[in-house]
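Hi, can you check this record?
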Amino acid sequence: QVRLVESGGGLVQAGGSLSVSCVASGSIVSVNVMGWYRQAPGKQRELVATITSRGSTNYADSVKGRFTISRDNAKNTVSLQMNSLKPEDTAVYYCNLEWRVVGSRINAWGQGTQVTVSS
């Protein structure tokens, strides 16, 4: 069983910065992808950024140049540094861990942490 626990987030004015972090515990496969997704009220959950266990990153176009994802494989943590925040970044941010078992994708999710950007 894999458990993800997020921390960070909060309230910030537009143009400010925040960071969110996530620690994974349990039976974790070493080859995996960790990432952050977000869901705003009335909208579907969307990808923010992902990072593979080898360090390859992928960002949503809306956050490129403003957000930076990083991970520590030894500690099973993933972090998201968010700069130049905009009101439209307001959402619940979810940590995700994805891995493969015999070709099937398995996903684990955190409980989510609120990020609110005021204008």
